[in-house]
Amino acid sequence: MFTLTSAAAAEIRAAMPRSGADGLALRVAARLETDGSLAFGMGFDEAREGDMPLEIEGVPLLIAQPSQALLDDAMLDYVEVAPGRLDFVCVAQTPEHDTVDPAPAGGCGSGGCNRCGG
Asked: Which CATH number characterizes residue 22's domain?
């Protein structure tokens, strides 16, 4: 099951009012790249048919059906990725290697979650 760390949940909860996302959920998406790596994206959105809704630590989440299997064992964290630079990182069980591989979570595929303050 997809999980959030307490740090990620706190940052998302704080970002929702800053970005005008009250009443929306955080959509988390993943896709398998041609090299076998996973690409992650996220942004605030409304629910759509086929979404899997979750609520973790007060954060409403949506995962679209095509991403559900890829994110099943993923964890979203908010960590210091460089001195003084915090960002979201998604750690997922890779489908081919059965190892855990950290990958930055990009906001809507843009390389950073601008919509939620990351």
From this structure: 2.60.300.12
